[in-house]
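Audit log entry. Action: structure prediction of a protein-small molecule complex. Ligand: fe (ii) ion. The ligand was supplied as SMILES and no pocket hint was given, so placement is left entirely to the predictor. Protonation state taken as written. Sequence taken verbatim from the request; no trimming, no tag removal. Recorded inputs:
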Amino acid sequence: MEVKLVRVPEESDLNKALNTAVNGISEATHKEHLKLWQGYANKTNEIRKALAELDTDPAKANQIYSPMRALKANYAFAYGGYLNHNVYFETIGGSGGAPEGKLADLIAESFGSFEAWAADWKATGISARGWAYLGYDLEEKRVHTYLGDGQDTYPAWNNVLLLAMDVYEHAYYLDFQTARAKYIDAYMKSIDWHAAAKRLSQVL
Ligand SMILES: [Fe+2]
């Protein structure tokens, strides 16, 4: 059976993100970041190919170590990192501020106001070791913010990711050193809410 592979991002995938330079997140940061994003794509594809060739005899599987365990555990990290970065780069390079329409209504419903959401988002980002997420929960039909400490910490099952904010140091250290709060301020001025709304439109 043919192995389905993910698309490896290219420099042109950064085009919109380069707009963030005006807010302080530089082209140099994004170009370095692209190498990591490509790494998640390449490793996703490598693991998919390895899984396709793996001997799936249950007698060879083992929870301490087995090729199946190694591939499956690292697949979540590779593909999770790929998806997180896809959403990150897809939803920055905009003009920030507050969203409009359905997304604005959902945020007001869950947080009371956009300002309350913004405070929650910033605090979530400062509290995370890897990611802050805004997800639309298909169970409750509401938006929530989530914290992720690794590439493989999904926000929750059955959510559509609307925003993914990378707070690993590689996302900001060149521009802000350890001042993560300043990076988050710059990120928030750079959110492309139209792109987030487009993601929501997949299900609403
Ligand atoms: Fe990253």
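Audit: result stored. The pocket of fe (ii) ion is lined by residues 33, 36, 85, 166, 168, 170-171 (CB under 6 Å). The helical segments are 27-53, 67-90, 101-111, 114-127, 173-176, 180-188, 193-200.
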